[in-house]
Amino acid sequence: MWIYSTHHTSIYYKIMEQIRVRNYTTADYADICRLDAYLFEGMGGHVLFRHIEELFPGLFFVAEDARTHEIVGYILGGIHLDDPNTGKLIRIGVKSEFQRIEVGTELATILFAEMRKHGVKKVHLTVSETNAAALSFYRKNGFEIQKRVEKYFYPDIPRLVLEKNL
Ligand SMILES: CC(C)(COP(=O)(O)OP(=O)(O)OC[C@H]1O[C@@H](n2cnc3c(N)ncnc32)[C@H](O)[C@@H]1OP(=O)(O)O)[C@@H](O)C(=O)NCCC(=O)NCCS
Known about the structure:
Largest sheet: 7 strands, mixed
Bound molecules: coenzyme A
Structural class: alpha+beta
Strand content: 25-35%
CATH class: Alpha Beta
Number of strands: 7
CATH superfamily: Gcn5-related N-acetyltransferase (GNAT)
Number of helices: 5
Shape: globular
CATH architecture: 3-Layer(aba) Sandwich
Oligomer: single chain
CATH topology: Aminopeptidase
């Protein structure tokens, strides 16, 4: 998908050719925590990642520079125990210098393909209504706003719930 895109420059092709998505391993933990602490201003990623690597190891992916092995993005998901048709995109982040060249889209595509193998038919996620970049990204990737939930995060912070059929 990346190399056939037409609206980017040759520099884009060169960068994307060296990015690969693979499963997360425990050895990635510190690198992802550092990246996440920057992107999410310290909001709990270091705890979240340890839980997800135990609960949903098959739904945890990283994008890395194949030459330097630098982690430039990550995505993690889960599946509802009481509704195995529904998956959740729990968190996604892409290093600032690598944003807008479809690293996020590739991570999401791979996560959703893996979820489909487990019988997942729809995915939901929550996002802040002030996160314009993420909202635009999710819409571009087929998500629609389902509802707004008041007081979702402590203390009284609302979130949008978005959904997409796989
Ligand atoms: C959201 C995020 C993962 C997108 O990753 P990405 O690799 O840049 O996304 P892609 O390149 O695959 O998709 C690009 C599309 O996303 C949207 N987008 C990404 N960055 C954007 C920005 N700064 N402003 C507006 N739209 C943006 C646009 O729709 C863009 O399409 P366009 O370039 O044709 O306009 C990335 O911006 C990020 O890590 N943000 C910080 C962490 C975060 O907010 N995560 C989501 C929390 S719910």
